[in-house]
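User: Is it possible to get a 3D structure for a protein together with its bound compound? The compound here is D-ribose. I've pasted both below.
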Amino acid sequence: MKIAIGCDHAGINLKPTLIKFLQENGYEYTDFGTYTADSCNYAEYGEKVAEAVAFGGYDRGILICGTGIGMSIVANKVTGIRCAHCHDVFSAKATRQHNNANVIAFGERVIGSGLMLDIVKAFLTTEFEGGRHQARIDKITEVEKKYSK
Ligand code: RB5
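Assistant: Yes, that's possible. Here is the predicted structure of the complex:
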């Protein structure tokens, strides 16, 4: 599984914990930045990761900003992205099972590293259930197509 990760300056302290987890568990990943604590625009890095997942052959994306909100908003503007803004394990599992979420966004100012890793594990290991949920995702795709001109 290929994973794209990214953060802004407000997510820079949590990202090394994420990287260590991915390395230790043998995940292939690319870090799309930012790489320093200098103030930057979360939308730039959210877009890079979302593009990598939608068009670049990456299977999942993981984003970290201050709240996770800005990153999730921008990621969800990219065609084909279903980004879940998620701070608990139950929602992380459910968004894989029901929404087939391909990107997840966290806020470093909201959660600690232990909870983040539990959420990441759930996000990376839970399968989409398909069935009735596929029809609902098809409707989301329909809405996306309707408004993308
Ligand atoms: C940066 O201050 C902050 O606005 C950003 O990381 C994020 O929380 C935006 O949604």
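Residues 132-147 form the longest helix (16 residues). The beta strands are 2-7, 28-31, 60-65, 83-85, 103-107.
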